[in-house]
Amino acid sequence: MKLLDRFLRRVVRRGELTVTGHDGTRYQYGNPDPGREPVAIRIADRRVGFDIVRNPRLGAAEAYIDGRIVMEQGEILDLLDLVRSNARWENGGDKSPLERGGARIARAYRYLNWERRSRRNVAHHYDLSDRLYSLFLDSDRQYSCAYFTDAANGLEQAQLDKKAHIAAKLLLKPGQRVLDIGCGWGGMALYLNRVADVDVLGITLSEEQLKVARRRAEEAGVADRVRFELLDYRKVEGRFDRIVSVGMFEHVGPPHYRTFFRKCRQLLADDGVMLLHTIGRFGGPGFTDAFTDKYIFPGGYIPALSETVAASEKARLMVTDVETLRLHYGLTTQEWYRRARDHKDEIIALYDERFYRMWLFYLAGATVTFRHGGMGNYQIQFARDRHALPLTRDYIHEAETRLRAAGSEPRPKARTRRKSDASPGRVLEGAGPE
């Protein structure tokens, strides 16, 4: 406990934390912080302190998951928020030189996501029980940062506004061919088809997501216009007027960034537009923390804007617009955390209590990272040709206003389609006049 005591006295300055050691000794840290309730925990065994000091993120996570850290006042989100708020990224809470050196090694060897490894890594997270995701996501299963035009908006509205925000940046026209890289459960592809009368090919590496996405397209009566395939982006063929990728780039890995952007340029029509929505680092390149890599997203990596843009430049994709979503993902994951907590019994019934604590720690950790750490979201628009988009950004606001006003308007009447080649990447050809 001595090591942990010294560690916490150095870290916790604002906010009150009480720790009861395994021998019953009570330790007090920090000072009252207006608007923040005190937090109290109990440590079940003497090794917890050593594990946390040795590797704070993984040590604290595993101790909580195993029930060796017991919350006595407040929730795990309150504990993590108290600690992380004392080391905000803006105030210099950054990586040490040793960690930055480790990041360079990690980028060279740890994120080599070849096709087989990519599919295995995706399955680890996305092929969990279909029921689990329905318990904490919105009804459309948008598993990515929502867009809050007002912080008081509910999750359903914020996710709908996110889709409108992205659709507006794509400058869609009826009959266009759209590729959705990392389509999830199909919500974005179905939305674009509904509001813009476009044909979409969605690709995923998750068999569970594929089943749901195909079923949704069938139920909506648009399976001939919104197609979903179990396919790695490197295997897609054909040309597309628009490419959208939401929450997938985090799984590509730095060694493959140039491959990703070269492939996107190859797939994009000469006058095409691409929108990449990804979690991003506010600082320079880093590495994935041990807890996330081990338990949540093996092979995943959050890119810095600098390394993302540098890779796209090599492919001669022109960056035509960049937006930083600073606060939106913290609001999103906070709502996911609340919903997961409120469905504790159902999650335990699906798996067990240890899994529930792991999932809650994951969502709580994500929330405080987006609140106080060096993470946010970037929406980066690309084009092959500088003339592909209007002279000013006014078109984005105008299109977004129309889409929000329309809300969930009726699906457009299906158009007659010519017979097309059914190979992945050519399934959208012959979709009708643009």
Would you summarize the structure shown here?
With 434 residues, the chain is α/β, with parallel strands linked by helices. It contains 17 helices and 11 strands. It folds into 2 domains: 2-86, no CATH class; 115-406, 3-Layer(aba) Sandwich (Rossmann fold).
Number of domains: 2
| Head-to-tail CA distance between termini | 68 Å
Number of distinct beta strands = 11
Under CATH at level 1, the class of the largest domain stands as: Alpha Beta
Would you tell me which CATH topology of the largest domain applies?
Answer: Rossmann fold
Q: What integer value in Å does the Rg equal?
A: 23 Å
Summarize the helix and strand pattern as letters. HEEEHHEHHHHHEHEHEEHEHHEHHHEH
Shape: elongated
Spatial strand sequence of the major β-sheet: 7-6-5-8-9-11-10
Taking pLDDT < 50 over at least 5 consecutive residues as the criterion, the unreliable ranges are: 96-103, 409-434
Structural class: alpha/beta
- CATH H-level superfamily title of the largest domain: Vaccinia Virus protein VP39
Average pLDDT works out at 88
Binned strand content = 15-25%
Biggest sheet descriptor: 7 strands, mixed
Q: If classified by CATH, what would the architecture of the largest domain be? A: 3-Layer(aba) Sandwich
- Total helices: the number is 17
Helix content: 40-55%
